[in-house]
Amino acid sequence: MRRLITAWLVYFSIIGSSQAAAWVKLNEQNTEKLMLDKQSILQKDKLKRAWVKIEYKAPQNNPETIDKTYNLSKLLWFFDCPAQKVATTQVFQYLDNELVYTAAIEAKSAEFIDPVPESHVDIAMRYVCKADQSVTAAKAIKAEPETVKLNTPNPNTEKSGTEKTAPAAVAEKKAEAVAKNPASNAAKLDKAKGDNHSLHWSYQAKTGPDNWGKLATEFATCASGRNQSPINIDGTTHASLKPLKSIQKFPAKDIVNNGHAIQVNFKEGNMLVLDSAAYQMEQVHFHTPSENTIHGKIFPLEAHFVHVDAKGNLTVIAVLYAEGKANLGLTKILGQISKTPTEPVPLKNRLTARELIPDNLGYYRYSGSLTTPPCTEGVRWLVMKNTMTASREQIKAFSEAFESDNNRPIQALNGRIIVE
Prior knowledge:
- The chain is an alpha+beta fold.
- It has two domains: 7-128, Beta Barrel (Lipocalin); 210-399, Carbonic Anhydrase II (Roll).
- The protein is built from ten helices and 20 strands.
- A hairpin with a 4-residue loop joins β10 and β11 (262-266).
- α2 packs antiparallel against α5 (166-180) and α3 (130-140) packs across α5 (166-180).
- It is globular.
- It starts with 6 loop residues before the first helix and ends in a 21-residue tail after the last helix.
- The model is unreliable at 1-18 and 133-198 (pLDDT under 50).
């Protein structure tokens, strides 16, 4: 992200011309708190933008300024609500209220990305875009003729709430509840009785993988993409792949059934260095049976360790499990696997990623996509050559958490090269 000398001027011109900030807490964890200024939400062309700040309880390291730390970030995020994409245009980092780093870029030049589910940007996007969701909900219900233009937030209306129709207000409260409770995600709502909205997807029948691309415009890449995952790893090309450099000592914090997979979220600090960029590990989730295959062989279980860098780029480390000896790391998860969607609950046992990843980090690499809607491409895939083992009982516990297998079928390679 390019640094601009005018970053401070832009910041104060925006903040100075607006009313006093009205910070609302969107999410708080043991290590950090996400706040958003409601007064800063504005519509610009087809985009919305808002200021957010993230307060950290412990100093953080910035990969671009490794000699400096910070414990508060203020960021200007732009949201493309229809496309469900987000871009960061300004960054201010402070250490005990002293500015230590700034960066900025014009919105028209910024890279809009699909936010990682349940990340800070994802939570903020749901909150900022709730007005659009409220309008949709209001149209779906026979409401009174009097309506309000929710696309243009009015500070006075925000305080009184007298200009909103009942249906819109109800929809807004639901959206705000989702924003404040990350685990109350779309997957959980999908399973609610009678919920049949267009973004529902599954691994079965009409909402299964063969039809993902038809369910919503946001999912079009699932059908039209040329670099989709998973793949069958075969016919590889030998290259001088650099050894993986990673830090995997910080433990997991909670576990959740998100409606599509069992997911374990990790505390900050687990890092992967790839292509001279630092990636932070966010979570690991599991698929039964495996999604990627090696020489046509399907494995009964696959784990995906999702990493994201400062620009939102994704790298996934995939670990395949064969049936055999029980995995001690998986044992720490089994007792808390829910068969219904839940909110995240603290993991009772201390678990690190190293317990779920082979000691030998040899890997295959290819360029692919998310294996779930919206099937976004540009994801770096690192599939471990060496497999782990899991007992039949462990595999069964993951499999029985859902009504069907939760693996996407193999996708066409379309000329891509797999290197090892």
